[in-house]
Amino acid sequence: MTDEPPAPDELAGGDPPPDSKLTRTKRAWAQAGKFLTGKVTREDDERLPPGQHLVKDWPVLDLGLQPDIPLNHWRFDVTGAVEAPISWDWPTFQSHAQSHLVTDIHCVTTWSRYDNRWDGLLVRDLLDIVMPKLGASHVLLHSFDGYTTNLALEDFAAEDAMLVHSWEGKPLSVAHGAPMRLVVPHLYFWKSAKWLQRIEFRTFDKRGFWEENGYHNHADPWKEERYSADE
Q1: How far apart, in whole angstroms, are the C-alpha atoms of residue 82 and residue 71?
Q2: 3-state secondary structure of 182
Q3: In 55-138, which residue ranges form alpha helices assigned H by DSSP?
Q4: Peptide linkage before 8 cis (omega within 30 of 0)
Q5: How far apart are CA 173 and CA 73, in angstroms?
Q6: Taking a C-beta distance cutoff of 8 angstroms, is the pair 205, 152 a contact?
Q7: Which of 167, 163, 168, 143 is nearest to 66 (CA)?
Q8: How far is CA 173 from the centre of its chain?
């Protein structure tokens, strides 16, 4: 054990995730259209989206890397098309108004979990702080493991979207994205980036990791937007 801080490049999150068995498997799923049912439901008609099944636990899926970021070295940045860019340490993040929400979550691998209790900073409160510029239309999320995913600003700004640090009254585990991750309940969960490091506001869209590997650019569970072939 050592008290020395990690080298900057160890926490930079700038390199793309390595190719892995999971990545290759999910590319094959996208090419084959696995899990697609063809059924159409609406969010206000059914709580469970088509092709999904309920679970009681919270399955763990990642790219094979689970970065363990010490809180005293953690930093969160918002850059790009905003009036007030930020670079926060952990105490600064915690000093802003915290909220509590209960939401469902839906994974593209067909599991859903109801009534998850979250604590964190509402995205809408973050937007009030950073003030997106008039031309901002999308965000690109960057994680400490090199993962990226993209969202239209209207999805990112959903009223129940949150930067969460706690689940079910306890701090997030490393496996689930500690110390902070995004949760966007109305989209498939790959859009809710774990180990969130930086949010880049953009004036045009740029696809992230899974979007470049065969997954849908929008990811609405009620429209079964699993793969790019659906677009």
Answers
A1: 26
A2: strand
A3: 90-95, 123-130
A4: no
A5: 17
A6: yes
A7: 143
A8: 15
Q: Which of 78, 193, 201 is nearest to 137 (CA)?
A: 201
What does the alpha-carbon distance between residue 137 and residue 88 come to, in Å, rounded to a whole number?
Answer: 23
Q: Identify the bridge partners of residue 54 per DSSP, sorted by sequence position.
A: 112
Phi and psi angles of residue 42, each rounded to the nearest 5 degrees, phi first: -115, 150
CA dist., res. 148 & res. 141, Å (int): 5
Partners of 107 in the beta sheet? none
Measure the CA–CA gap between 83 and 58, rounded to whole angstroms: 37
pLDDT in tens, 3-38: 333 433 344 445 555 565 555 554 555 455 644 554
Each residue of 82-128: pLDDT tens digit? 999 999 999 999 999 999 999 999 999 999 999 999 999 999 999 99
Contact call for residues 198 and 126 (beta carbons, < 8 A): no
162-167 vs 148-152, strand pairing mode: unpaired
Which residues, in sequence order, are bridge partners of residue 103?
116
Residue 103: CB atoms within 10 Å:
18
**DSSP label of 119:** E
Between CA 195 and CA 111 the distance in angstroms is 21
CB 116 within 8 A of CB 184: no
- Rounded to whole angstroms, the Cα distance separating 22 from 46 reads 30
Joined together, the tokens standing for residue 178 give 């500690």
What is the SS3 assignment for 152?
strand
The CA distance from 208 to 27, in Å, is 14
